[in-house]
C-alpha cells in the first residue's frame, strides 16, 4: 500500500513540476517579428479595478544593443490570468501584424 502511495506522490510531483515550468515559460515568452529586430512580451500590472496587461517591446539584435519600451495594454480584467491571456494575444499580434517588418 505504501509503495502505491509513494508512486502516486512521485508521479503527481513530477506532473506539477512540469506544469510549473510550462507556466513560467509562457509568462516569459517573447514574440519576435519576421525581421528579428523587435520582440514583444506581455506583463500584468494590478490596478484598483483589476488587472491591466502591459506590453514590453524589445528592439535590437543582441543583448548589448537591446532597448526595452513599455506599451500600454487595452482594458482592465477581473483576473490576472485573463489579463495575461489578452496581453499575450496583443503581443503576438504586434509581432506578427503591426511591427511585422520593423
Task: Please specify the SSE layout and strand pairing.
Elements: H1 2-27, E1 31-32, E2 38-46, E3 51-59, E4 67-72, H2 80-98
Antiparallel strand pairs: 1-2, 2-3, 3-4
Report how far the terminal alpha carbons are from each other: 61 Å
User: Can you summarize the main beta sheet?
Assistant: 4 strands, antiparallel
Order of helices and strands: HEEEEH
Tell me what portion of residues adopts beta-strand conformation. 25-35%
Alpha plus pi helix count: 2
Molecular shape: extended
- Derived structural class: alpha+beta
Q: Quaternary arrangement of the chains shown?
A: single chain
- Arithmetic mean of pLDDT: 83
Radius of gyration computed on alpha carbons = 18 Å
The residue fraction in helices comes out at: 40-55%
- Uncertain residue segments: none
Q: How are strands sequenced across the largest beta sheet?
A: 1-2-3-4
Q: How many β-strands, per DSSP? A: 4
